[in-house]
Amino acid sequence: MSGLRVAGRGRKARRTFRHGAGNGLETGRQIRFTFDGKSYLGHPGDTLASALLANGVRLLGRSFKYHRPRGLLSAGPEEPNALVELRQGAAREPNTRATIAEIFDGLVASSQNRWPGLALDVLGINGFFSPVFTAGFYYKTFMWPASFWEKVYEPLIRRAAGLGRAADAADPDRYEKITAFCDVLVVGAGPAGLSAALAAAESGVQVILCEQDALPGGRLRGERTLIDGRPGWMWAQDAHRRLAGMTNVRIMTRSCVFARYDGGTYGVLERVFDHLPAPREGQPRQRMWRVVAEHCVVATGGIERPIVFPNNDRPGIMLAASVRTYLHRFGVIPGHRAVVYTNNSDGLRTVADLHHAGVRVVAIVEAGTSTAAQDLARQTGAVLFSGATIANTFGRLGVTAAVIRDAHGREHRVGCDLIAVSGGWSPDIALTTHQGARPVYRDDLAAFVPAQGAGGSDLHVVGVAAGVMTDRGAFESGLRAGYLTSGADGSGKMRLPDVNDAAYDITPVWQGPGTGNLPRAGKAFVDFQNDVTARDIRLAAQEGFQSVEHLKRYTTLCMATDQGKTANVNALAMLADITGRSVSETGTTLIRPPVQPVALGALAGAHRGRHFRPFRLPPTHRWAEEQGAVFAENGLWLRAQWYPRPGETHWLETVNREVETVRNRVGFCDVSTLGKIDLQGPDVRVFLDRLYVNGWQKLPVGRARYGLMLREDGFVFDDGTTARLGENHYVMTTTTAKAASVMQHLEFCHQCLWPELDVQFISVTDEWAQIAVAGPNSRDVMRQIVDPDFDLSNAAFGFMAAADVTVCGGLRARLFRLSFSGELAYEIAVPARYGDALARRLMQAGAPYGIAPYGTEALGVMRIEKGHPAGAELNGQTTAHDLGMGRLLSGRKDFIGRRMADRAALRDPARPTLVGLKPLRVDAPLVCGAHLLPKGAAATAASDQGWIASSAWSPTVGSWIGLGFLQNGPARLGDVVAVHNPLAGTVTEAVVVSPVFVDPQGERLHG
Amino acid sequence: MRLTCPHCGSRGLEEFSYRGDATVQRPALEAPEEDWVAYVYLRDNPCGAHRELWYHGAGCRAWLVVERDTLTHVVHNVRAVCREETP
Ligand SMILES: [Zn+2]
């Protein structure tokens, strides 16, 4: 086929691009897929890139800013150009690299960033407007008038510069997360990584081997390297098989180690079912691994660089090693008439390989002068240009000719449909820099390598990633690291296979002549994905952006989804050149995680939608559902808000009825969500004294007491009641919201401040179901519940009493006479699993007394009626004085917050203090957050005197009521203040009253 | 990041919560107000070696003193606070 004429005008010859088997292909089977609506055939093992190339498709996309026609630059994950959309509808995935997307039967793929079609893209005209898009264009456009930006440039840039389209429906697939531990994590299954894994595994340690590709072998798949006399990829397959048979080895393919974190923690993205139409039943599409490893062997190989020359981005201009990968792994001929352009010895391999595959190599362009090139030219009949460069290329939708400038400056136009370019290899060092270790520049390799000991003593970089450029060196460094990490002395056992030991040498040439100057010859691309040109770099340097960090941000160099994998070193070398510094002096930016783009879905795992966070369900939840309760989220808890009855048409009607039930008969409410902490030990009393502002020395067994806690800065932290159940046994309740932080606070105080106190405590929030039973009939109901030998009379079990009791015929329980509603009330606690049964029993036993359940809304109304502070009042900015509880502060002991609460400013009576508020018109709602102003004052910050914290319609008072904070509040009872709601723009009036609206003497709860 | 809890072994960051400087000492009640203000509000932010308090809330609930380098993130030592000798 090498005799075919190339790119004949007019009639196109039908040609094949598949020349042989390909070591990664199953040629016996065919797969049908579509690209931009056209159907093609490929084989299992093909990537979208190789399959399209095999079908002669070279144009795969349009570039980001200039809409230039682009094809494949590479054959791997470093690909900057060939970004495509895969799948359709909800499963549509934009910006996928065609070079890593494995094809499957029925795959639908399409190009992006083109309109109306790839071959005819009207926005290609951006090339003519290109001054708009030069270095710093984002920053410069921001300096234009805002109206220009909004109306003209922003829409223009958004339409013109773009990537793919995200799916417009929820992702139908599942993702999951998993954690794994191992002794040695090996990253990369090329010759170095496989050697390391074998050495470590044979020593018996636990090994995880991750390979981002579907197949092991790394570069061995793309070369004709012989190992022990056989093709290298066969050696890799054997090594892989041996490892797979070992019980201490886990091999993960299609798994990219995308980050190294502190403490030997790694992020790994496993693409479990990206290569099939849909995940298998019950399986995730992708799996996010967190791997914790004692040691990590980085065998990530290298990334080949292009060379920067005018019009170096045409389809058909590819990286040389990628050309070899397409030849050997996929059996695809990327072109029929090739020019090979290289500045290093490795690139020359391409000449022999293309020739071997029957491709005519018309010219070899080498930056230096080598005998190897002379030999190759002789063998293949190619014309050799030593000390030469490519000065330009031609071809609208694919390269048709190259202009070669020889050592004497003469230009030669050569027809070709493939230019294989090698600018040398950059070790893939991303994982070694994630924790801030700076790589060092090696002049002999013209590349950055990890610094000695970079990233920590547990990180072992081997093979090309470490700057070891020979095949033999890859095996040697891999084996050595493998033995080292396993702690075994393998020096005696180390057996190196028989491989070629050819040296790698490079002539550091980064760009063709004149590429950074006038755009006469055409754009010379450095960063293909972000369309950053050599001229942009020169311009940025001229404008003063000479630090690499500034250059990067000003030009958007290396800021695309590929993070500039193929662009970084070329750009630095060019900047060094312009500024007259060495590459070492110029420095490099650090590479941050992730190494490859990671889907948000994979990061979220199962935590989406309903599962974003779990619900905590109180013990009576199922029963409440049966009652038709309406639920609301309280932190993680799902609590019954109210219990509508047939015929009730508005929630307020239900809540009013529930409040009236409690005030006149009896109601009950699940209060299990309150934090409960069980404390035991001889020093609990002292401990409580130091935690709460009030005193605990005189609390007798069988009694409970209200307590207020401060933070050490003197502001209120939490409140609740603590009951003394035995000589050395107490049970504390906290608010629902602060249950966890109070527990943490207690642990801190005990372990860090007063370890000498003999106390033990544990959270029992989940162990006890606690139900409040409130209302004038509550004692009658409790008599039906509590076993009859217990005396419930007011004399025997009065207000704030507490006791261990039995209920319902022998069930152990705790009974407290506490009241949040202000009525005669009890709280009864039973083991959590009996909570549901207790609710049902209460309904039954309480029926004759008119019992009904009530929800959090009625609970809230009644606590406002009683002036009890809750979340809105305990907001972290109020003091005990602000809450009208200054008298609780004991002067006889040290307690958390005492000293700072004593600061004069916090005791200033002018601070807004808790008051009750009643609108002058009873049906005028009070709105939480409204400002309190002197009557008639202007609504300014200067005249602001407080705010409304909580409000409700009180069916008991027959009016809206509120709790608020008002300057000098307690001294202003009876005053009328203005209530200003700036959101609604309203001003109403309210009278300042005591915060206790109902039963101010507390007669009911003592009854 | 991982911490090796003296009770539970090596555990992931998500099991712990951070409090801050472990070197501050709660003053006596009668100490001058400046001491209290310093204790409650003032913290150094050293670049390098630091002693920090961490809480193993999702594990043994121990408060831990972690000696950590804020620059390199290397953890040098983790002890339970109640096992600390007070200087
Ligand atoms: Zn622990």
TrEMBL record, chain A:
The record's region (Disordered) falls at 1-21
Tell me which UniProt keywords the record has, alphabetically.
Answer: Oxidoreductase
Chain ranges of the Aminomethyltransferase C-terminal domain: 914-999
Put simply, this protein is called Sarcosine oxidase subunit alpha
User: Which SUPFAM superfamilies does the entry mention?
Assistant: Aminomethyltransferase beta-barrel domain, FAD/NAD(P)-binding domain, Folate-binding domain
A Pfam family reported for this protein in Swiss-Prot or TrEMBL = GCV_T
Organism whose genome encodes this protein: Gluconobacter albidus
Ranges of Basic residues composition bias in the record = 8-18
Which GO biological process annotations does it have?
Answer: tetrahydrofolate metabolic process
Positions of the SoxA A3 domain: 522-605
Tell me the lineage of the source organism.
Bacteria, Pseudomonadati, Pseudomonadota, Alphaproteobacteria, Acetobacterales
Automatic annotation (TrEMBL), chain B:
The biological processes this protein is annotated with in GO are: tetrahydrofolate metabolic process
> TM segments?
none
- Read off the Gene3D superfamilies from this record: Folate-binding superfamily
Source species, domain of life: Bacteria
Q: Which one of the record's GO molecular function terms can you name?
A: sarcosine oxidase activity
Protein name as it appears in the record: Sarcosine oxidase subunit delta
Species of origin reads Gluconobacter albidus
